[in-house]
Write a structure and sequence with these properties.
The complex is a heterodimer of chains A (251) and B (206).
Chain A lengths: L2 E8 L2 E7 L13 E5 L4 E4 L7 H9 L7 E5 L5 H4 L2 H7 L4 E5 L16 E4 L4 E5 L2 E7 L9 E5 L4 E3 L19 H15 L3 H13 L4 E3 L6 E2 L1 H12 L14
Parallel strand pairs in A: 4-5, 5-6, 6-7, 11-12
Antiparallel strand pairs in A: 1-2, 2-3, 3-4, 8-9, 9-10, 10-11, 12-13
Chain B lengths: L6 H41 L5 H54 L1 H20 L2 H34 L6 H36 L1
The chains are: A alpha/beta (251), B mainly alpha (206).
C-alpha cells in the first residue's frame, strides 16, 4: 500500500503526500498524490488512475476523513491524473473538480456530471477550500495545452504536476537528496514531454518569483530548499520539445 | 455477498450484442434481396405477357413482408443499442465494484468507508441485470420477426405451387420461388439465432 507522509502543517491545516507503493503494478507509472487538509475540507491533487484508487483511498482514509474531500484539482487531463474521478464521486457526489476549461468536456468521459466541473480560465484563479485560498497557476504546454499548478502561499508549496517529474528506480526516496544524480532521471522526461521552450521560460520566471520551499511533482521525488531553485535554473536551461533521435527509444 | 454478474459475464454479453448485430445485418441483406426478387418476379411475369395472378399476389405479399421486416430490423437495432448501452454501463459498474472490493480489503478504515458505497453499487447492479432488460425489449420485437419469418416460409411454399401455373415461364418462376424459399429459411434461421443468443444471455443471470 502507498505510504502517507506529512509535508507541512500548521494547526489543523496539513499537506500530505501519498507515494511509493512497494506492491505497485509494474506496468502503471508511479504517481504521487497530495492532499491539503483543513478541519472541514480536503483538496486532493491529481488523484491518480482508476487502477490505483484502492491504494490511494486506503492511504488517505488512514490519515484523514475521506468524506471531507470536497475538491479535486486536476493539473491536466491525462488518465494517470484523473481517470479515478468516477470512484471518488461515489464517496461524495458533490466533489468539485477544478481543471482547465480546455478539458471540461473531455474529462467527463471519466465520470462526473455537469455540476462536477469547475473550469479554470487560462490566466488561473484562486481555489477557496476550508477558509484557505490556494492559487491555481498557469503552466500551459507543460506538458498539456491546458495545464495548471497549485500553489499554497502559506505553506510555500507548489504542486507542479509533471514539471519536476522523474522516472526513478523503485527504491528511491521521497525527497531529492543528490540533485545532480536525481536530475539525470528527469532529463529525458522533460525534453520529451514538455512541448514549448517559450512556455517553459514563462513558467520558470513565474516560479522564480514565488517563495517555494517544496516543489512537489506528480511523479518522482520532491524538491526541498535549495534544490527548488536548482531545478528552476536547470529547467530554464534545458532545451525541450525536440526529438533528438527517432524510433522507440526516442524519449 | 459478491457481485453476481462478473466482468467476464459482461464481456460475454458484449460478444452477444456483437453476434446479434451481425445476425441483424444478415437479416437486413435478406430483406433487401427478398424485395429485389419479388419485384423481379413481378416484372418478369408481366414482360412475358403471361398472366399468373396467384404468383403475382404472392410476389406482392413478399414485397410487403420484406418492408415489414425492414421496420422490424429498425426496432431490433434500437433494442440492440439500448442493450449495448446498459451492458456498457454495467461493465463500468462491475469494474468499480471490483476496485472497491480491493479497497475494502486493504485496511479496516478503508473497508468501513468503502462498504456502504459497495452495498449501494451492488444493489443497483443486481437491479438492472442487462440481459433481463435486453430480453424485455427484444422479446416483443423478436415475436414480430418470428411471425414474419413464418409467413415468409408459407409464402415461399405458395409461390412454388403458383409457379407451376406459369405456362412457358413456369421454370423461371420456379427459380424465383426457390429464391423465396432460400431467403425465407435464411430469415427464419437468423431470427432463431438471435433468440438463441438472448436465451444464453438470460441463462447467465438466471
Amino acid at each position: 500500500m502507498k505510504a502517507v507522509t506529512e509535508l507541512w502543517s500548521n494547526g489543523s491545516r496539513r499537506w500530505l503526500v501519498v507515494a511509493r507503493d512497494p506492491e505497485r503494478i509494474d506496468h502503471l507509472i508511479d504517481t504521487n498524490e497530495y492532499a491539503m487538509a483543513t478541519a472541514d475540507e480536503i483538496v486532493l491533487t491529481d488523484p491518480g488512475g482508476f487502477e490505483i484508487f484502492p491504494m490511494v483511498f486506503a492511504a488517505i482514509a488512514g490519515e484523514l476523513d475521506a468524506h471531507k474531500i470536497k475538491h479535486i484539482f486536476a493539473s491536466h487531463q491525462d488518465p494517470d491524473v484523473i481517470s479515478s474521478l468516477s470512484l471518488w464521486l461515489l464517496f461524495n457526489p458533490q466533489i468539485q473538480c477544478h481543471l482547465s476549461w480546455l478539458w471540461q468536456t473531455f474529462v467527463p468521459h471519466f465520470g462526473g456530471s455537469a455540476d462536477t466541473f469547475q473550469p479554470i480560465p487560462d490566466e488561473g484563479r484562486a481555489l477557496a477550500a476550508g477558509g484557505v485560498s490556494l492559487d491555481l497557476v498557469p503552466a500551459h504546454y507543460l506538458h498539456s495545452s491546458g495545464n495548471f499548478h497549485l500553489y499554497d502561499p502559506e505553506a510555500r508549496l507548489l504542486f507542479s504536476g509533471d514539471v519536476g517529474a522523474a522516472l526513478l528506480p523503485p527504491t528511491s526516496g521521497l525527497f531529492v537528496t543528490d540533485f545532480d544524480r536525481h536530475i539525470a532521471h528527469a532529463e529525458g522526461f522533460h525534453r520529451r514531454w514538455m512541448g514549448s521552450n517559450e512556455a517553459k521560460r514563462d513558467w520558470c520566471e513565474r516560479a522564480a518569483a514565488m517563495s517555494i520551499d517544496l516543489l512537489c511533482p506528480q511523479h518522482g521525488a520532491i524538491y526541498r530548499g535549495k534544490d527548488v531553485g536548482r531545478f528552476i535554473n536547470w529547467f530554464a536551461e534545458l532545451e525541450v520539445g525536440r526529438l533528438r533521435t527517432r524510433g522507440p527509444r526516442a524519449a | 455477498m459478491e457481485s453476481r454478474v462478473t466482468g467476464a459475464d459482461l464481456g460475454a454479453d458484449l460478444n452477444g450484442v456483437a453476434a446479434v448485430s451481425d445476425q441483424i445485418r444478415r437479416l437486413g441483406r435478406q430483406a433487401f434481396l427478398m424485395q429485389l426478387h419479388a419485384t423481379n418476379a413481378m416484372v418478369m411475369s408481366s414482360s412475358h405477357g403471361v398472366r399468373v395472378p396467384g404468383f403475382a399476389i404472392v410476389s406482392q405479399q413478399m414485397r410487403e413482408l420484406s418492408t415489414e421486416l425492414g421496420n422490424c430490423l429498425t426496432e431490433l437495432r434500437g433494442a440492440t443499442l439500448r442493450w449495448l448501452s446498459v451492458v456498457s454501463h454495467q461493465v463500468g459498474r462491475a469494474r468499480s465494484i471490483e476496485i472497491l472490493q480491493a479497497t475494502a480489503r486493504l485496511t479496516p478504515v478503508a473497508g468501513a468507508a468503502a462498504r456502504p458505497v459497495l452495498g449501494r453499487l451492488r444493489t443497483e447492479h443486481a437491479a438492472d441485470a442487462p440481459p433481463r432488460l435486453a430480453q424485455r425489449a427484444f422479446i416483443l420485437v423478436l415475436d414480430d420477426a418470428r411471425r414474419l419469418a413464418s409467413t415468409g416460409c408459407v409464402l415461399a411454399r405458395t409461390a412454388k405451387l403458383e409457379a407451376t401455373y406459369g405456362d412457358r415461364i413456369a421454370g423461371t418462376l420456379a427459380e424465383a420461388a426457390a429464391s423465396f424459399t432460400e431467403l425465407a429459411d435464411s430469415v427464419d434461421e437468423a431470427v432463431r439465432a438471435i433468440a438463441r443468443r438472448l436465451t444464453a444471455a438470460a441463462r447467465r443471470v438466471a
